[in-house]
Design a protein that fits this description.
By secondary structure, the protein is mainly alpha-helical. The protein has helices at 28-50, 54-81, 86-104, 114-135, 141-163, 168-188, 198-229, 236-257, 260-269, 273-286, 288-307, 315-340, 345-358, 366-389. Helix 5 runs antiparallel to helix 6 (168-188) and helix 8 packs antiparallel against helix 11 (288-307). The model is unreliable at 1-13 (pLDDT under 50).
Length: 395
């Protein structure tokens, strides 16, 4: 995949496309599009809390990847075309309207709400593909790449819709096949030519991480708010657990935005041509999926801790907390290795320590466990910061 070069293109098919070398910030309509995913992530947390088993977590993982499809497709499409033109904004608003029923049906998509989930998802995915194809000049190398990429995308859409109208077992199989078709398309896209604008790409993925972190706050606070509205008293320790959950969210923000996020953008800016596009695919499309998924899984465990701060955290939720942290850390460390061929040792050590703290079946209240996790995270980030301040940035 090579980033295009050349003079400005005034009008490409139906959309005005900026010069390939021009970068820009995300448009407010893109953030508006993201708001439906706040709702979708909230529904996903609710599903995980109601079924914290390994099977339930696997089903939630499939649903998350299906949600990731339209979001990442629109990110690539609007990176090439730009949402700063009115016709594109209208298209994004249409996709946003379709995303509302999709988000509302996440919790029961594998049961009786398959059509309400899959049909809007297919519409959004198809709209994103159409924007991308229409954004490139007919006959250009990028246009050929986008058409070639879209063919498996059409197969994906067909599998999604077909899966919505069969029983749960076959539905899962068809939706897994849909994900396989997309994975095939993204791997094959590595030999194509694409426009990649680093600032926009980094900003969009930073925004989706913030949305996921916001879900930590919503997931932990909402059950207590409902309890207050119903006239139920809330123990003081529940407020302490809310504070600990807030600290947890802030530490995850620090772990992503303080150094990794600008480092990822810097790595993207330093590359050109097909290397830049492959980097964007690997660091952002692939490795940001576990970062966001990890936050969502951890949020489900934190909800249980907040509701029952004095109780021992059940094994399913302890596993959930560790899996969430492991996904988040592995996504960042994988992206750091892809970007700068480095793996921060403090984070790897912290993950091992948290495995020792979280996984054993000890009679430890959930709140105590969360405070210890916060302390381990804080220590790792402080030590990392001190070490890196003594050396070159991004080293």
């Amino acid at each position: 995949m090579r980033a295009s070069a050349g003079g400005p293109r005034s009008r490409v098919r139906r959309f005005t496309t900026p010069d390939p070398n021009e970068d820009f910030a995300a448009n407010p309509v893109e953030l508006f599009f993201d708001l439906a995913f706040v709702f979708a992530f909230s529904q996903l947390v609710g599903r995980v809390v109601s079924d914290p088993s390994a099977d339930g977590l696997a089903e939630a993982g499939l649903l998350f990847l299906l949600l990731w499809l339209p979001w990442t497709q629109f990110t690539w499409s609007l990176n090439a075309v730009s949402a700063h033109s009115r016709p594109v904004q209208v298209v994004v608003l249409i996709a946003t309207a379709a995303s509302v029923p999709m988000a509302a049906s996440v919790s029961s998509a594998l049961e009786d709400a398959g059509p309400a989930f899959a049909i809007p998802l297919a519409i959004i995915l198809g709209t994103g593909l159409a924007v991308m194809v229409a954004g490139y000049e007919v006959g250009s190398a990028e246009f050929v790449s986008s058409v070639r990429y879209s063919i498996p995308g059409l197969v994906t859409m067909a599998l999604l819709v077909a899966g919505a109208f069969v029983d749960e077992g076959l539905r899962t199989a068809l939706w897994v096949a849909a994900m396989a078709a997309v994975l095939f398309a993204t791997v094959r896209a590595g030999s194509g030519d694409w426009v990649v604008r680093p600032r926009h790409f980094a900003e969009r993925h930073g925004l989706i991480v913030i949305i996921a972190l916001g879900e930590v706050i919503v997931a932990t606070a909402l059950p207590l708010v409902i309890g207050l509205e119903e006239g139920e008293g809330i123990p003081a320790r529940s407020y302490v657990s809310l504070g600990a959950a807030g600290v947890f969210a802030c530490l995850l923000w620090w772990a992503y935005f303080d150094r990794p996020q600008p480092g990822f953008e810097h790595g993207l800016e330093a590359l050109h041509g097909r290397q830049r596009a492959r980097y964007a695919r690997d660091v952002y499309t692939y490795l940001h999926a576990p970062i966001v998924a990890g936050v969502i899984v951890a949020a489900a465990a934190l909800e249980e801790i907040t509701l029952h701060p004095d109780d021992e955290l059940p094994l399913d939720f302890r596993l959930m907390l560790f899996v969430g942290l492991a996904l988040f850390a592995s996504g960042i460390e994988g992206a750091a290795f892809r970007s700068h061929h480095l793996v921060p040792p403090e984070r790897a050590v912290a993950l091992v320590v948290m495995a020792v703290v979280i996984l054993p079946a000890l009679s430890v209240p959930g709140l105590t466990l969360l405070v210890v996790v916060d302390a381990v995270l804080l220590a790792a980030l402080v030590i990392e910061h001190v070490r890196k301040e003594r050396r070159q940035p991004l080293s």
